Protein backbone atom coordinates (compact mmCIF):
# COMPACT_ATOMS: atom_id res chain seq x y z
CA UNK A 1 0.00 0.00 0.00
CA UNK A 2 2.78 2.43 0.95
CA UNK A 3 4.73 1.57 -2.20
CA UNK A 4 1.67 2.28 -4.34
CA UNK A 5 1.12 5.67 -2.69
CA UNK A 6 4.77 6.61 -3.16
CA UNK A 7 4.63 5.59 -6.81
CA UNK A 8 1.42 7.58 -7.29
CA UNK A 9 2.96 10.62 -5.61
CA UNK A 10 6.11 10.35 -7.72
CA UNK A 11 4.02 10.14 -10.89
CA UNK A 12 2.04 13.22 -9.84
CA UNK A 13 5.20 15.23 -9.14
CA UNK A 14 6.70 14.20 -12.48
CA UNK A 15 3.55 15.32 -14.30
CA UNK A 16 3.57 18.70 -12.53
CA UNK A 17 7.23 19.17 -13.37
CA UNK A 18 6.58 18.34 -17.03
CA UNK A 19 3.67 20.79 -17.16
CA UNK A 20 5.76 23.54 -15.56
CA UNK A 21 8.61 22.91 -18.01
CA UNK A 22 6.18 23.02 -20.92
CA UNK A 23 4.76 26.36 -19.73
CA UNK A 24 8.29 27.75 -19.34
CA UNK A 25 9.21 26.63 -22.86
CA UNK A 26 6.07 28.27 -24.26
CA UNK A 27 6.88 31.48 -22.39
CA UNK A 28 10.46 31.52 -23.69
CA UNK A 29 9.24 30.89 -27.24
CA UNK A 30 6.74 33.75 -26.94
CA UNK A 31 9.29 36.30 -25.73
CA UNK A 32 11.88 35.14 -28.25
CA UNK A 33 9.34 35.71 -31.02
CA UNK A 34 8.45 39.10 -29.54
CA UNK A 35 12.11 40.18 -29.51
CA UNK A 36 12.60 39.18 -33.14
CA UNK A 37 9.40 40.96 -34.21
CA UNK A 38 10.32 44.23 -32.51
CA UNK A 39 13.58 44.28 -34.48
CA UNK A 40 11.58 45.23 -37.59
CA UNK A 41 10.25 48.60 -36.30
CA UNK A 42 13.69 49.33 -34.83
CA UNK A 43 15.27 48.88 -38.26
CA UNK A 44 12.52 51.01 -39.84
CA UNK A 45 13.12 53.75 -37.26
CA UNK A 46 16.79 53.85 -38.19
CA UNK A 47 15.89 54.43 -41.83
CA UNK A 48 13.51 57.25 -40.89
CA UNK A 49 16.05 58.91 -38.59
CA UNK A 50 18.62 58.86 -41.39
CA UNK A 51 16.43 61.42 -43.19
CA UNK A 52 16.30 63.89 -40.28
CA UNK A 53 18.08 67.10 -41.41
CA UNK A 54 18.93 68.51 -37.96
CA UNK A 55 22.24 66.90 -36.97
CA UNK A 56 21.82 67.32 -33.21
CA UNK A 57 18.28 65.93 -33.20
CA UNK A 58 19.38 63.11 -35.48
CA UNK A 59 22.19 62.09 -33.10
CA UNK A 60 19.84 62.15 -30.11
CA UNK A 61 17.33 59.95 -31.92
CA UNK A 62 20.07 57.56 -33.04
CA UNK A 63 21.23 57.28 -29.45
CA UNK A 64 17.74 56.45 -28.17
CA UNK A 65 17.14 53.87 -30.91
CA UNK A 66 20.49 52.31 -30.06
CA UNK A 67 19.39 52.00 -26.42
CA UNK A 68 16.11 50.35 -27.41
CA UNK A 69 17.99 47.89 -29.61
CA UNK A 70 20.49 47.17 -26.82
CA UNK A 71 17.75 46.50 -24.26
CA UNK A 72 16.02 44.22 -26.76
CA UNK A 73 19.25 42.30 -27.30
CA UNK A 74 19.67 42.05 -23.53
CA UNK A 75 16.31 40.28 -23.26
CA UNK A 76 17.21 37.92 -26.10
CA UNK A 77 20.56 37.07 -24.53
CA UNK A 78 18.88 36.45 -21.19
CA UNK A 79 16.44 34.04 -22.82
CA UNK A 80 19.27 32.24 -24.61
CA UNK A 81 20.91 31.38 -21.29
CA UNK A 82 18.50 28.44 -21.16
CA UNK A 83 20.36 26.80 -24.07
CA UNK A 84 23.75 28.36 -23.34
CA UNK A 85 25.84 25.20 -23.61
CA UNK A 86 24.37 24.31 -27.00
CA UNK A 87 25.74 27.55 -28.41
CA UNK A 88 29.38 27.55 -27.26
CA UNK A 89 32.34 27.71 -29.64
CA UNK A 90 35.70 28.05 -27.88
CA UNK A 91 38.57 29.45 -29.91
CA UNK A 92 41.66 31.64 -29.64
CA UNK A 93 40.62 35.29 -29.70
CA UNK A 94 42.59 38.53 -29.84
CA UNK A 95 41.53 40.70 -26.88
CA UNK A 96 42.23 43.97 -28.69
CA UNK A 97 39.92 43.00 -31.56
CA UNK A 98 37.10 42.18 -29.14
CA UNK A 99 37.42 45.45 -27.26
CA UNK A 100 37.61 47.58 -30.41
CA UNK A 101 34.54 45.86 -31.86
CA UNK A 102 32.48 46.84 -28.82
CA UNK A 103 33.96 50.34 -28.60
CA UNK A 104 33.03 51.06 -32.22
CA UNK A 105 29.38 50.34 -31.41
CA UNK A 106 29.44 52.95 -28.64
CA UNK A 107 31.53 55.59 -30.42
CA UNK A 108 28.56 57.97 -30.64
CA UNK A 109 28.15 57.95 -26.85
CA UNK A 110 31.80 58.84 -26.27
CA UNK A 111 31.51 61.73 -28.73
CA UNK A 112 28.23 63.12 -27.40
CA UNK A 113 29.32 62.92 -23.76
CA UNK A 114 32.81 64.25 -24.49
CA UNK A 115 34.49 61.28 -22.78
CA UNK A 116 38.05 60.14 -23.39
CA UNK A 117 39.05 56.55 -24.16
CA UNK A 118 42.44 55.02 -23.42
CA UNK A 119 43.13 51.53 -24.80
CA UNK A 120 46.48 49.93 -24.00
CA UNK A 121 48.25 46.62 -23.33
CA UNK A 122 45.52 44.66 -25.11
CA UNK A 123 47.80 42.66 -27.40
CA UNK A 124 46.92 39.32 -25.84
CA UNK A 125 45.24 36.10 -26.98
CA UNK A 126 42.71 34.25 -24.85
CA UNK A 127 40.65 31.10 -25.26
CA UNK A 128 36.92 31.84 -25.03
CA UNK A 129 33.63 31.99 -26.89
CA UNK A 130 33.86 35.23 -28.85
CA UNK A 131 30.14 35.91 -29.20
CA UNK A 132 29.32 35.48 -25.52
CA UNK A 133 32.37 37.36 -24.25
CA UNK A 134 31.37 40.27 -26.50
CA UNK A 135 28.05 40.32 -24.64
CA UNK A 136 29.89 40.59 -21.31
CA UNK A 137 32.22 43.38 -22.45
CA UNK A 138 29.33 45.29 -24.02
CA UNK A 139 27.25 45.16 -20.84
CA UNK A 140 30.16 46.43 -18.75
CA UNK A 141 31.04 49.19 -21.22
CA UNK A 142 27.39 50.23 -21.44
CA UNK A 143 27.20 50.50 -17.64
CA UNK A 144 30.40 52.53 -17.48
CA UNK A 145 29.13 55.00 -20.07
CA UNK A 146 25.75 55.25 -18.36
CA UNK A 147 27.23 56.38 -15.06
CA UNK A 148 30.20 58.42 -16.32
CA UNK A 149 29.46 62.10 -16.91
CA UNK A 150 33.02 63.43 -17.23
CA UNK A 151 36.54 62.11 -17.62
CA UNK A 152 36.56 58.85 -19.53
CA UNK A 153 37.28 55.15 -19.71
CA UNK A 154 40.48 53.12 -19.69
CA UNK A 155 40.54 49.54 -20.99
CA UNK A 156 43.64 47.40 -20.61
CA UNK A 157 45.02 43.97 -19.75
CA UNK A 158 46.73 43.57 -16.40
CA UNK A 159 48.22 40.11 -16.03
CA UNK A 160 45.39 37.69 -16.77
CA UNK A 161 42.65 40.28 -16.30
CA UNK A 162 40.83 42.55 -18.72
CA UNK A 163 40.17 45.79 -16.84
CA UNK A 164 37.47 48.31 -17.75
CA UNK A 165 37.98 51.41 -15.62
CA UNK A 166 35.82 54.54 -15.57
CA UNK A 167 35.72 57.89 -13.79
CA UNK A 168 32.01 57.63 -13.09
CA UNK A 169 29.95 58.17 -9.96
CA UNK A 170 31.11 54.92 -8.36
CA UNK A 171 29.15 52.31 -6.41
CA UNK A 172 28.32 52.34 -2.71
CA UNK A 173 30.08 49.67 -0.65
CA UNK A 174 26.74 48.22 0.41
CA UNK A 175 25.83 47.70 -3.26
CA UNK A 176 29.12 46.29 -4.59
CA UNK A 177 28.45 42.82 -3.16
CA UNK A 178 24.97 42.72 -4.71
CA UNK A 179 25.42 44.26 -8.17
CA UNK A 180 25.59 40.81 -9.78
CA UNK A 181 22.25 39.71 -8.34
CA UNK A 182 19.41 39.35 -10.82
CA UNK A 183 17.08 42.35 -10.72
CA UNK A 184 19.27 44.36 -8.33
CA UNK A 185 19.58 47.97 -9.52
CA UNK A 186 21.14 49.46 -6.39
CA UNK A 187 21.30 53.08 -5.31
CA UNK A 188 22.61 54.31 -8.68
CA UNK A 189 19.91 52.50 -10.62
CA UNK A 190 17.14 53.91 -8.44
CA UNK A 191 18.68 57.37 -8.60
CA UNK A 192 18.88 57.50 -12.41
CA UNK A 193 16.04 55.03 -13.14
CA UNK A 194 18.19 53.62 -15.94
CA UNK A 195 18.99 50.16 -14.60
CA UNK A 196 17.23 46.92 -15.56
CA UNK A 197 19.14 44.88 -12.99
CA UNK A 198 19.96 42.31 -15.68
CA UNK A 199 23.17 43.50 -17.34
CA UNK A 200 25.70 42.66 -14.64
CA UNK A 201 23.79 39.53 -13.61
CA UNK A 202 24.02 38.35 -17.21
CA UNK A 203 27.72 39.27 -17.36
CA UNK A 204 28.58 37.24 -14.27
CA UNK A 205 26.49 34.27 -15.35
CA UNK A 206 28.10 34.16 -18.79
CA UNK A 207 31.61 34.70 -17.40
CA UNK A 208 31.28 31.80 -15.00
CA UNK A 209 29.95 29.52 -17.73
CA UNK A 210 32.95 30.47 -19.90
CA UNK A 211 35.34 29.66 -17.06
CA UNK A 212 36.18 33.32 -16.42
CA UNK A 213 35.85 35.28 -13.18
CA UNK A 214 34.46 38.80 -12.84
CA UNK A 215 34.77 41.24 -9.95
CA UNK A 216 34.27 44.92 -9.24
CA UNK A 217 36.31 47.55 -7.41
CA UNK A 218 34.63 50.90 -6.85
CA UNK A 219 34.78 54.12 -4.87
CA UNK A 220 31.93 56.62 -4.73
CA UNK A 221 32.83 59.84 -6.54
CA UNK A 222 35.97 58.39 -8.13
CA UNK A 223 34.88 55.57 -10.40
CA UNK A 224 34.66 51.84 -10.95
CA UNK A 225 36.94 49.13 -12.32
CA UNK A 226 35.49 45.85 -13.57
CA UNK A 227 37.97 42.99 -13.90
CA UNK A 228 37.43 39.87 -16.02
CA UNK A 229 39.98 37.19 -15.20
CA UNK A 230 40.77 34.61 -17.87
CA UNK A 231 42.00 31.11 -17.20
CA UNK A 232 44.47 31.20 -20.08
CA UNK A 233 46.23 34.21 -21.55
CA UNK A 234 49.09 34.10 -24.05
CA UNK A 235 51.28 36.91 -25.28
CA UNK A 236 51.08 37.45 -29.01
CA UNK A 237 54.30 36.38 -30.65
CA UNK A 238 56.11 38.98 -32.68
UniProtKB/TrEMBL annotation:
<dbReference type="InterPro" id="IPR004358">
    <property type="entry name" value="Sig_transdc_His_kin-like_C"/>
</dbReference>
<feature type="domain" description="Histidine kinase">
    <location>
        <begin position="33"/>
        <end position="234"/>
    </location>
</feature>
<dbReference type="GO" id="GO:0000155">
    <property type="term" value="F:phosphorelay sensor kinase activity"/>
</dbReference>
<dbReference type="InterPro" id="IPR050351">
    <property type="entry name" value="BphY/WalK/GraS-like"/>
</dbReference>
<dbReference type="GO" id="GO:0004721">
    <property type="term" value="F:phosphoprotein phosphatase activity"/>
</dbReference>
<dbReference type="InterPro" id="IPR036890">
    <property type="entry name" value="HATPase_C_sf"/>
</dbReference>
<keyword id="KW-0812">Transmembrane</keyword>
<protein>
    <recommendedName>
        <fullName>histidine kinase</fullName>
        <ecNumber>2.7.13.3</ecNumber>
    </recommendedName>
</protein>
<keyword id="KW-0418">Kinase</keyword>
<keyword id="KW-0472">Membrane</keyword>
<dbReference type="InterPro" id="IPR005467">
    <property type="entry name" value="His_kinase_dom"/>
</dbReference>
<keyword id="KW-1133">Transmembrane helix</keyword>
<keyword id="KW-0808">Transferase</keyword>
<dbReference type="InterPro" id="IPR003594">
    <property type="entry name" value="HATPase_dom"/>
</dbReference>
<dbReference type="Pfam" id="PF02518">
    <property type="entry name" value="HATPase_c"/>
</dbReference>
<dbReference type="GO" id="GO:0016036">
    <property type="term" value="P:cellular response to phosphate starvation"/>
</dbReference>
<dbReference type="GO" id="GO:0005886">
    <property type="term" value="C:plasma membrane"/>
</dbReference>
<keyword id="KW-0902">Two-component regulatory system</keyword>
<keyword id="KW-1003">Cell membrane</keyword>
